[in-house]
Amino acid sequence: MTASITHGAVEVGTELPAQSFPVTRATLVQYAGASGDFNPIHWNEKFAREVGLPDVIAHGMFTMAEAIRVVTDWAGDPGAVVEYGVRFTKPVVVPNDGTGALIEVSGKVAAVLDDNLVRVDLLAMSEGKKVLGMARAVVRLA
Fold it and tell me: Cα–Cα distance between 5 and 116 in angstroms, integer?
């Protein structure tokens, strides 16, 4: 696959379509099984509170993966992402209420680079709090 967005079609400030990603306790159990990360802060409310968390929290790598979906969906090719990094700033708290949490992600082209590359800056929020800092991806466009 190659990216479906062309380098010439974007400029600094181009906004990517925002997306929201629901997270429930069931989502966390599925992710734990797939990733092998069975840390009890991601599934055991009692343990999470004992270590000072407000409740069970989503895996950081899960949150990071959900955020990059905004970029891969926009580019049309997951392989177009050549660099991606974040800082984990706040946890995504996932209550056991049948609804869970919502991760809301938006992105903008922050720099148009040489060699068909662009840098996309992402904003990932949950409950009105920024959950990822310095979330940036470098993407090779068509």
Answer: 10
Whole-angstrom CA distances from 132 to 44, 62, 97, 138 are: 23, 12, 24, 16
pLDDT in tens, 98-141: 899 999 999 999 999 999 999 999 999 999 999 999 999 999 99
130 vs 7: CA distance, rounded Å: 29
Total-model pTM: 0.94
CA distance 86 to 67: 10
CB distance 87 to 98 below 8 Å:
no
CB 55 within 8 A of CB 93: yes
